[in-house]
Design brief:
The chain is an alpha/beta fold. It contains 13 helices and 18 strands. A hairpin with a 6-residue loop joins strand 3 and strand 4. Helix 2 packs parallel to helix 4. The structure holds 5-S-methyl-1-O-phosphono-5-thio-D-ribulose (MRU). The site of 5-S-methyl-1-O-phosphono-5-thio-D-ribulose has 18 residues, from helix 2 and strand 11.
Length: 388
């Protein structure tokens, strides 16, 4: 997508043919800074520190990280070390595991002398595939927006609520939740986006608003607790969010606060859609609430907030009293029953195992075999869920 008229992706291979460029998302919206990643250690640090973030981009960065590792040392031991280090950077987005397994499947059978070139090729394919998938998600989601727009008076905007940043910054390009919005806007359909600020890191206020603004999409940033009120007053036509992992039963894990928006949408009859690329589906687990590992992040993200002063300085200030304990769960899980549909590259699916497995049979069978061999351990101590 465009930044001040120039086309950018969130990550790319630099002109030297080996180092990796990425937009430093920690500095947005105040500064546009490009980072150069030259080692697997730096790739791991970029994911862990959230220089790059968003499930698909985390996967693409990890793939390039493996390529950088192979450039330095293409032995079996180095491949194992890169995999172990990168997989530990963030626990929730399944795209990280998917990309690392893709790299291992490609590189494992090759001799070390063939690995570096193959690693860069596969990492590049993973990045290109993400762009193509998101464009397809955009086309399917566009039909939903067009359907609502058709019932509107000319020029009356379709109001879409989104949470966190599932935009082009969270992917390689286009975004997942934003792809239908960009397509609709580019085709002249009037859209307006309610952007949840998404505390504590403010991915909505800082990143989604920045993206939409640069593309000229009308939007309004709202405090996280506003969505329910807007829905009660018929000011939201549909919600579209992204996801970090979708369980085989259709449960959706996304940025903390997504579940509350889904509850409010359900209570008010507002369609609640989740946009996702197929690498975000985890066919190895059947119960998102009990089995998806939820990242807990540092207290500093809650106790402090960073912004730009009137004089242009970037400053971080404390907003919580000294000594108050803090909890910082990064994600929550929205049960499938609250999800209207999953917008994938192969169409809009019902959030249930049969629909996911029949749309992506190659992934369903491959992952089932993997998980049968090494079952994923449940991370929650919740009692079994009552049947619905
Ligand atoms: O902690 P983050 O910023 O990596 O969380 C990102 C999200 O929750 C996104 O909504 C999700 O990764 C989907 S991105 C297309």
């Amino acid at each position: 997508m465009k930044v001040d008229g120039r086309h950018f992706r969130s990550i790319w291979l630099e002109g030297d043919g080996w180092s990796v460029g990425a937009i430093d998302q920690r500095r947005l919206p105040h500064e546009f800074v490009v980072a150069r990643i030259t080692s697997v250690e730096q790739a791991g640090e970029a994911i862990g520190s959230m220089l790059v973030r968003g499930a698909p981009l985390i996967g693409a960065t990890a793939a390039y990280g493996v390529a950088l590792a192979m450039r330095a040392d293409a032995s079996d031991a180095a491949l194992d070390r890169a995999h172990e280090m990168l997989i530990a950077t963030r626990p929730t987005a399944i795209n990280l595991k998917w990309a690392l397994e893709e790299m291992r499947r490609t590189l494992g059978p090759l001799s070390p002398s063939a690995r570096t070139e193959a690693a860069y090729r596969r990492a590049g394919e993973i990045a290109e595939q993400d762009v193509a998938i998101n464009q397809a998600i955009g086309r399917h989601g566009l039909e939903l927006i067009e359907g609502i727009a058709a019932s509107r008076k000319p020029g009356e905007a379709v109001n879409i609520l989104t949470h966190c940043n599932a935009g082009w910054l969270a992917t390689v390009d286009w975004g997942t939740a934003t792809a239908p919005i960009y397509l609709a806007h580019d085709r002249g359909i009037a859209v307006h986006v309610w952007v949840d600020e998404t505390r504590p890191r403010n991915q909505g206020a800082a990143l989604t608003a920045w993206e939409l603004g640069h593309h000229g999409v009308p939007h309004t940033v709202i405090p996280d607790n506003t969505g329910g009120h807007l829905m009660q007053h018929r000011m939201v036509d549909l919600a579209i969010v992204g996801t970090d992992r979708v369980a085989a039963n259709g449960d959706v894990c996304n940025k903390i606060g997504t579940y509350l928006k889904a509850l409010a949408a359900h209570d008010n009859g507002v369609p609640f859609y989740v946009a996702l690329p197929s690498p975000t589906i985890d066919f190895g687990i059947d119960d998102g609430i009990r089995q998806i590992p939820i990242e807990q992040r540092g207290a500093g993200e809650v106790t402090h907030i960073t912004g730009r002063t009137a004089e242009g300085r970037i400053e971080t200030v404390r907003v919580v009293p000294e000594g108050s304990p803090v909890a910082n769960y990064g994600f929550d899980v929205t049960p499938a029953r609250l999800v209207t549909g999953l917008i994938t590259e192969r169409g809009v699916l019902r959030p249930e195992r049969a629909a996911l497995a029949s749309a992506f049979p190659e992934r369903a069978s491959a992952l089932k075999a993997t998980f049968d061999a090494a079952p994923f351990s449940a991370v929650s101590t919740l009692p079994p869920r009552p049947a619905r």
